[in-house]
Amino acid sequence: MNTLIKSTDEKMNKSVSHLETEFTEIRAGRANPAVLDKIRVDYYGSPTPVNQVAAVSITEARTLTIQPWDASLLRAIEKAIQTSDIGINPQNDGKVIRMIFPPLTEDRRKEIVKDIAKMGEDAKVAVRSIRREAMEKLKAMKKSGDITEDDQKHGEKKIQDITDKHIKSIDGLTEKKQKQIMEI
To answer: What is the predicted pLDDT for the residue at 42?
Structure first.
Protein backbone atom coordinates (compact mmCIF):
# COMPACT_ATOMS: atom_id res chain seq x y z
CA MET A 1 0.00 0.00 0.00
CA ASN A 2 2.86 2.39 0.77
CA THR A 3 4.28 1.88 -2.72
CA LEU A 4 0.88 2.77 -4.17
CA ILE A 5 0.78 5.99 -2.16
CA LYS A 6 4.37 6.82 -3.11
CA SER A 7 3.81 6.19 -6.83
CA THR A 8 0.60 8.24 -6.72
CA ASP A 9 2.52 11.15 -5.16
CA GLU A 10 5.24 10.84 -7.84
CA LYS A 11 2.69 10.84 -10.68
CA MET A 12 1.00 13.92 -9.24
CA ASN A 13 4.39 15.65 -8.87
CA LYS A 14 5.00 14.98 -12.57
CA SER A 15 1.68 16.64 -13.44
CA VAL A 16 2.63 19.73 -11.43
CA SER A 17 6.12 19.79 -13.00
CA HIS A 18 4.60 19.55 -16.46
CA LEU A 19 2.38 22.53 -15.67
CA GLU A 20 5.41 24.53 -14.51
CA THR A 21 7.16 23.69 -17.78
CA GLU A 22 4.13 24.77 -19.79
CA PHE A 23 4.03 28.06 -17.89
CA THR A 24 7.69 28.82 -18.70
CA GLU A 25 6.94 28.38 -22.39
CA ILE A 26 4.23 31.05 -22.39
CA ARG A 27 5.29 34.09 -24.36
CA ALA A 28 4.60 36.94 -21.97
CA GLY A 29 6.06 40.04 -23.62
CA ARG A 30 9.47 39.49 -22.06
CA ALA A 31 12.28 37.67 -23.79
CA ASN A 32 12.32 34.11 -22.50
CA PRO A 33 14.64 31.43 -23.94
CA ALA A 34 12.12 28.74 -22.92
CA VAL A 35 9.91 29.68 -25.91
CA LEU A 36 12.52 27.97 -28.10
CA ASP A 37 12.47 24.68 -26.15
CA LYS A 38 10.09 22.91 -28.54
CA ILE A 39 11.76 24.18 -31.72
CA ARG A 40 13.98 21.68 -33.50
CA VAL A 41 16.55 22.46 -36.19
CA ASP A 42 17.76 19.98 -38.80
CA TYR A 43 21.40 19.52 -37.75
CA TYR A 44 23.16 17.05 -40.03
CA GLY A 45 20.00 15.06 -40.54
CA SER A 46 18.71 14.92 -36.96
CA PRO A 47 16.21 17.29 -35.32
CA THR A 48 18.12 19.10 -32.57
CA PRO A 49 16.89 21.69 -30.02
CA VAL A 50 17.98 25.27 -30.81
CA ASN A 51 19.80 25.64 -27.48
CA GLN A 52 22.08 22.72 -28.43
CA VAL A 53 23.29 24.29 -31.69
CA ALA A 54 23.41 27.95 -30.67
CA ALA A 55 24.02 30.34 -27.81
CA VAL A 56 20.67 31.78 -26.74
CA SER A 57 20.80 34.95 -24.65
CA ILE A 58 18.63 37.83 -23.53
CA THR A 59 20.28 41.06 -24.67
CA GLU A 60 17.49 43.41 -23.58
CA ALA A 61 14.26 42.89 -21.66
CA ARG A 62 12.34 42.08 -24.84
CA THR A 63 15.11 40.86 -27.19
CA LEU A 64 16.35 37.31 -27.51
CA THR A 65 19.59 36.75 -29.43
CA ILE A 66 20.46 33.42 -31.02
CA GLN A 67 24.03 32.94 -32.18
CA PRO A 68 24.66 29.56 -33.84
CA TRP A 69 28.01 27.89 -33.25
CA ASP A 70 27.96 26.81 -36.89
CA ALA A 71 27.18 29.82 -39.14
CA SER A 72 25.66 27.53 -41.77
CA LEU A 73 22.74 26.86 -39.39
CA LEU A 74 21.59 30.50 -39.36
CA ARG A 75 19.00 30.00 -42.15
CA ALA A 76 17.81 26.66 -40.72
CA ILE A 77 17.23 28.19 -37.27
CA GLU A 78 15.45 31.19 -38.80
CA LYS A 79 13.21 28.91 -40.85
CA ALA A 80 12.42 26.68 -37.85
CA ILE A 81 11.36 29.73 -35.81
CA GLN A 82 9.22 31.06 -38.66
CA THR A 83 7.40 27.74 -39.09
CA SER A 84 6.79 27.36 -35.34
CA ASP A 85 3.74 28.78 -33.57
CA ILE A 86 5.67 31.32 -31.49
CA GLY A 87 4.27 34.26 -33.44
CA ILE A 88 7.51 36.26 -33.50
CA ASN A 89 9.33 36.97 -36.72
CA PRO A 90 13.09 36.42 -36.37
CA GLN A 91 15.50 39.04 -37.73
CA ASN A 92 18.63 37.62 -39.35
CA ASP A 93 21.60 39.99 -39.75
CA GLY A 94 23.96 37.37 -41.18
CA LYS A 95 25.68 36.63 -37.85
CA VAL A 96 22.92 36.35 -35.25
CA ILE A 97 19.16 36.04 -35.13
CA ARG A 98 17.24 38.52 -33.00
CA MET A 99 13.73 37.95 -31.78
CA ILE A 100 12.01 41.07 -30.50
CA PHE A 101 9.04 40.33 -28.29
CA PRO A 102 6.29 42.93 -28.74
CA PRO A 103 4.65 44.33 -25.62
CA LEU A 104 1.35 42.64 -24.77
CA THR A 105 -1.97 44.37 -25.37
CA GLU A 106 -4.64 44.24 -22.67
CA ASP A 107 -6.75 41.85 -24.79
CA ARG A 108 -3.79 39.54 -25.35
CA ARG A 109 -3.05 39.51 -21.61
CA LYS A 110 -6.63 38.49 -20.83
CA GLU A 111 -6.39 35.77 -23.47
CA ILE A 112 -3.16 34.46 -21.94
CA VAL A 113 -4.71 34.52 -18.45
CA LYS A 114 -7.60 32.38 -19.77
CA ASP A 115 -5.10 29.96 -21.33
CA ILE A 116 -3.25 29.76 -18.01
CA ALA A 117 -6.50 28.99 -16.18
CA LYS A 118 -7.27 26.22 -18.70
CA MET A 119 -3.77 24.73 -18.28
CA GLY A 120 -4.24 24.80 -14.49
CA GLU A 121 -7.63 23.12 -14.81
CA ASP A 122 -6.17 20.43 -17.10
CA ALA A 123 -3.43 19.75 -14.54
CA LYS A 124 -6.06 19.42 -11.78
CA VAL A 125 -8.02 16.97 -13.95
CA ALA A 126 -4.84 14.92 -14.41
CA VAL A 127 -4.21 14.88 -10.64
CA ARG A 128 -7.80 13.84 -9.92
CA SER A 129 -7.52 11.08 -12.52
CA ILE A 130 -4.40 9.78 -10.76
CA ARG A 131 -6.31 9.88 -7.46
CA ARG A 132 -9.23 7.94 -8.97
CA GLU A 133 -6.85 5.23 -10.26
CA ALA A 134 -5.21 4.94 -6.83
CA MET A 135 -8.59 4.71 -5.06
CA GLU A 136 -9.67 1.94 -7.47
CA LYS A 137 -6.44 0.04 -6.76
CA LEU A 138 -7.10 0.32 -3.01
CA LYS A 139 -10.62 -1.09 -3.50
CA ALA A 140 -9.21 -3.96 -5.57
CA MET A 141 -6.61 -4.66 -2.85
CA LYS A 142 -9.38 -4.72 -0.21
CA LYS A 143 -11.55 -6.98 -2.39
CA SER A 144 -8.71 -9.45 -2.93
CA GLY A 145 -7.99 -9.49 0.81
CA ASP A 146 -4.52 -7.89 0.58
CA ILE A 147 -5.53 -5.10 2.97
CA THR A 148 -8.15 -4.60 5.67
CA GLU A 149 -11.00 -2.11 5.52
CA ASP A 150 -9.15 0.11 8.02
CA ASP A 151 -6.05 0.04 5.79
CA GLN A 152 -8.22 1.00 2.83
CA LYS A 153 -9.75 3.96 4.71
CA HIS A 154 -6.29 5.03 5.90
CA GLY A 155 -4.90 4.76 2.35
CA GLU A 156 -7.83 6.72 0.90
CA LYS A 157 -7.26 9.50 3.43
CA LYS A 158 -3.54 9.67 2.61
CA ILE A 159 -4.25 9.76 -1.12
CA GLN A 160 -6.85 12.49 -0.62
CA ASP A 161 -4.35 14.52 1.46
CA ILE A 162 -1.72 14.16 -1.29
CA THR A 163 -4.31 15.19 -3.91
CA ASP A 164 -5.33 18.26 -1.89
CA LYS A 165 -1.67 19.27 -1.54
CA HIS A 166 -1.10 19.05 -5.30
CA ILE A 167 -4.35 20.85 -6.19
CA LYS A 168 -3.34 23.67 -3.83
CA SER A 169 0.10 23.77 -5.49
CA ILE A 170 -1.49 23.99 -8.96
CA ASP A 171 -3.82 26.78 -7.82
CA GLY A 172 -0.84 28.70 -6.40
CA LEU A 173 1.21 28.31 -9.60
CA THR A 174 -1.75 29.34 -11.76
CA GLU A 175 -2.52 32.39 -9.64
CA LYS A 176 1.14 33.46 -9.59
CA LYS A 177 1.48 33.15 -13.39
CA GLN A 178 -1.79 35.02 -14.01
CA LYS A 179 -0.66 37.83 -11.72
CA GLN A 180 2.72 37.95 -13.50
CA ILE A 181 1.01 38.30 -16.93
CA MET A 182 -1.30 41.08 -15.76
CA GLU A 183 1.60 43.05 -14.24
CA ILE A 184 3.76 43.09 -17.37
So the answer is: 86
